[in-house]
Inverse folding.
């Protein structure tokens, strides 16, 4: 078994996507799981290699990546050093990035294709990444099974609860700032984020996409989540007969934090991982 860290592929606006792949060196093609991180997140948040290794040991190839405009760079994949890039991020760029990662997984020139069964692709998305995975699954038939962790219910992060006054200030100044609770950085959000949402509101309609997903879907959500209330998951499950809901007594990140130094996951996260692996074994 092997892993390759920080491979670079071209993303939205030609900005790089840093990508990790965990695969079996026996040349046996395995179903591939692709993970999409959330807002203010990155592929290595909370020592995500530990999670990837569990999927690998269970018979899957595992791919995780940094969205091209998430604020990190290939040289600093765990730090927000590209704040200008972060400010230019939006939902359609993330959808495009996820499509490019799927393209890379399936591309005949991919030197690691021997470890990938390109016809059996599953997605895992956390929070905003969960919303992106819902939207991508609704439009891309290459995806055969979906898992979401605390997925958002609308493409309105982080302005969904802002006042009219703050929205007007945002429009007038062209930029608003969001405080990263972990790093205390003031993260710029350019007004194009909202303009892009208005321009593509039908494509970015998560509830509509969620109700029409034609493939098996496992929703995982913490009952004590204060970032995305668990009622969002219940609404998704009620709207789609293909969806199965798993709730655990935990928060938005299932008990993890960054950095994460222990070699074991918190109990809620491990429960989610175990159920994810069983789900993908059944449906991929």
């Amino acid at each position: 078994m092997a892993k390759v860290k920080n491979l670079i592929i071209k993303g939205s606006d030609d900005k790089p996507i840093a990508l990790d792949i965990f695969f079996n060196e026996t040349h046996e093609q395995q179903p591939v799981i692709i993970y999409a991180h959330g807002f203010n997140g990155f592929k290595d948040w909370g020592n995500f290699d530990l999670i990837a290794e569990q999927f690998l040991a269970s018979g899957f190839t595992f791919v995780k990546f940094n969205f091209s405009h998430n604020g990190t760079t290939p040289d600093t994949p765990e730090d927000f050093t590209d704040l200008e890039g972060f400010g230019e991020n939006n939902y359609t760029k993330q959808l495009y990035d996820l499509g490019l990662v799927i393209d890379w997984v399936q591309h005949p020139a991919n030197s690691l294709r021997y470890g990938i069964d390109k016809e059996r692709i599953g997605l895992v998305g956390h929070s905003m990444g969960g919303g992106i995975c819902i939207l991508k699954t609704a439009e891309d038939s290459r995806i055969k099974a979906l898992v979401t962790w605390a997925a958002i219910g609308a493409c309105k992060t982080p302005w969904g609860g802002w006042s009219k006054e703050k929205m007007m200030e945002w429009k007038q100044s062209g930029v608003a700032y969001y405080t990263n609770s972990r790093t205390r950085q003031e993260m710029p959000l350019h007004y194009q984020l909202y303009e892009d949402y208005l321009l593509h509101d039908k494509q970015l309609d998560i509830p509509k996409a969620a109700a029409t997903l034609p493939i098996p879907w496992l929703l995982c959500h913490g009952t004590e989540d204060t970032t995305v209330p668990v009622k969002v998951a219940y609404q998704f499950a009620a709207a789609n007969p293909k969806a199965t809901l798993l709730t655990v007594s935990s928060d938005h990140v299932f008990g993890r934090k960054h950095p994460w130094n222990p070699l074991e996951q918190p109990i809620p996260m491990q429960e989610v991982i175990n159920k994810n692996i069983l789900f993908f074994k059944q449906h991929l």
